[in-house]
């Protein structure tokens, strides 16, 4: 494990006082989309951006990114609410303010990046459609 991963993990273990194992584990699942994002970049560098593999990978990127980086937060809040017997809409007010603000700070860029990924997907789809239309004429 590299130092860039190990050091934050060790400091995280020290400062959290053995609290929040579930939330830490959930945040690690956010990285599930990373190999697919990287594969997309590799395929582009290899000139395979028009291949079926790149298209399938793009769908997987969108799915895993949305599931593991955006829906993750409502899921964590829902599980927390179930554990403490409170409705999900009250969870942000039950958590310490620093946790809620931290989650917002982590979620905001995820929503922006997902929006950008969707825009890129739409552009690629439209480009492909235009290429097919010009080829058929």
UniProtKB/TrEMBL annotation:
One of its GO terms (cellular component) is endoplasmic reticulum. GO terms for biological process: lipid homeostasis. It is found in: Membrane. It comes from the Eukaryota. PANTHER family: CT120 PROTEIN, TLC DOMAIN-CONTAINING PROTEIN 3A. Pfam families: TRAM_LAG1_CLN8. InterPro entries: TLC-dom, TLCD. The keyword Nuclease does not apply. This is Protein FAM57A. Residues 1-126 form the TLC domain. The chain crosses the membrane at residues 22-44, 56-80, 100-118. Keywords: Membrane, Transmembrane, Transmembrane helix. Its main location: membrane. It is a multi-pass membrane protein.
């Amino acid at each position: 494990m590299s130092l860039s991963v190990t050091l934050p993990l060790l400091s995280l273990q020290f400062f959290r006082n053995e609290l929040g194992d579930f939330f830490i584990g959930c945040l690690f699942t956010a990285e599930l989309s990373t190999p697919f994002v990287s594969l997309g970049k590799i395929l582009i560098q290899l000139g395979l951006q028009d291949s079926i593999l790149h298209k399938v990978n793009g769908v997987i990127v969108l799915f895993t990114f949305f599931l593991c980086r955006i829906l993750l937060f409502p899921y964590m809040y829902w599980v927390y609410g179930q554990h403490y017997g409170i409705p999900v809409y009250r969870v942000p007010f039950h958590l310490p303010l620093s946790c809620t603000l931290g989650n917002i700070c982590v979620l905001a860029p995820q929503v922006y990046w997902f929006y950008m990924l969707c825009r890129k997907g739409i552009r690629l789809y439209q480009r492909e459609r235009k290429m097919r239309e010009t080829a058929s004429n």
